[in-house]
Amino acid sequence: MAKVKSLAELKAMREKLQSTLDLREKSNDPDSFQTGCMGYCHAEPTIEVKCPGKDPIVFGHVDNNRADEILTKYVMNNEIVDGVIPVNYETI
Amino acid sequence: MHVLVCGGTGCQASASAQIIKNFEDILAAKGLQDEVQVVRTGCFGFCEKGPIVKIMPDNTFYTQVKPEDVEKIVNEHIIKGRKVTDLLYMDPENKEHVADSKHMGFYRKQLRIALRNCGFINPENIDECISRGGYEALGKVLSEMTPQQVVDEITKSGLRGRGGAGFPTGVKWGLCAKNKCDEMYVICNADEGDPGAFMDRSIMEGDPHSIVEAMAICGYAIGATHGLVYIRAEYPLAIHRLQVAIAQAREYGLLGKDILGSGFDFDIELRYGAGAFVCGEETALIHSMEGKRGEPTLKPPFPAVSGYMAKPSNVNNVETFANVPIIITKGADWFASIGSEKSKGTKVFALAGQINNVGLIEVPMGTTLRDIIYEIGGGIKGGRKFKAVQTGGPSGGCLTEKHLDTPIDYESLAAAGSMMGSGGMVVMDDTSCMVAIAKFYLEFTCEESCGKCSPCRIGNKRMLEILTKITEGRGTMDDLQELRNLAAVIKDTALCGLGQTSPNPVLSTLDNFWDEYVEHVVDKKCRAGVCKKLMRYEIDKEKCIGCGACKKNCPAEAISKTDYIAPGHKLPSMMIDPSKCIKCGACISTCKFSAISVK
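Output (structure tokens, whole complex):
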């Protein structure tokens, strides 16, 4: 990876990366990764599912069976499953 | 369409299960079960107004729903598309019903600034960080601002040290910047040592680039080219993520030589600590990094004059650094508009203890304890009674019911006898004994005291001995006075922050729970039933049928037969010899007739 040379270049990079990330969120190829603490330790482990065109949803107390259920019901058929953790904050 | 019904503990206690059943029955009766799905959710954190029902996708938020309201919601809202106004949340200020949950004040209670990227980005991918504006603050200071302007901007924002003491960050940078030297250091204090606090770890694990970026900004502002992160080795994931972040930043030229073509050089190294509480104190931390014993030294000289390797150094906490980039991009005025008069911005708290929504929260300064505990934290577990909240860890104190409406900032917490600390917040209900809590924190301090100064090494030990005496029922009223005397001397004479603040848990419980201390000393009673030596197990001779199950199970042979036969029973009842009883509780769990109790 080439080095970033200036602020303008960094900003251009952000624009470009934003569109690739958007692409990830808009595309129908599922992708999963580990992120930082969402703060919902009372319902751990949690996963957040971002489906194209919809608000992200957090599911709590996930285990293997629940993960299967979320994939087959929510991701594939748009049925919400029990155990949604409601968002209770604003961010900048 | 989705109907979300809160299945949190609070809402379940007020019939949310019945509400779900009613929805399912009524929807099925109307043939709508395929179009409308009923979902049980986790706690909304708004238990005060539970049970909560939310209709998606239009975000309608119904509060205090009763099972009999369900039919109306189905008929009006789901079938006819009209909102049931009297069940909507009412804004307490303007008395208007709020239809869309996104406009409820409740959602404005938490504002995430330091945690802005935690849980949003993949922390091991610098591209995701850049896509959310990462490193632009560094770009801005390098290309558009002088070092002095950076210091001024941070000073103007009102940002204060998030490690607990609350020293103005900009002033600290300014003091360090004055001491020009060939070698200077930016040090990040990631030695999070309070029991129960994990906000710094979460920031490093969730958004390590914000720390890397902020340290480089600080380096530019004070004229340093070296950054050091002092992190405890027991945080392996945080260490790994920081290492990845630093390596990626170097690869992109955001660390190293000539950053963004500005001619400014900066690089960061990690230093591992062994997890001693005292090494969170900045002079002890610096000594530990130099390979010496982690012991504090008298200030002055402050690290800004003579720090790491006797060079000017600036030490800031992780959360403080996490706020820096966003202050630069959004401006000092924006940051200063959030929070209370003297404490600006937000504070991250780790909520723990007997509270429903244990977790990590971030609120603007000036939020009340009541809002945090009852609205964000969802209230006390099991619907029990709130007793106290401990803030500031071993250096802080216990606050009670009367402090619930205290706005949280550095000054008001100190005035109430506690302190901000790094942000641990432990909520306790009526099953906690405050004398035992004070003893717990003092045990921690005694364990962690470095032993360099006698007030801390010896004084705390003496205090712990007195507290142990009290919890074992051997305390006197003179002991309570002696605790206060010792506390005053330790506060005045200890060398570093650890020692000076160590009596706080004892003093604040003496102030706020004096009656409980007196009960322990005079009545030899522990009302919470925590202090074992003060407990007495008794058998109710009228209830005891004399089966002898307890006698068989008693490991101390403390139970024997009496010669009393209760009316209606055939065998003589049992009794416990208090001098032999070891208070293990084996008899209580054996008795099928609830004849044994703890007094």
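Chain A has a mean pLDDT of 82.
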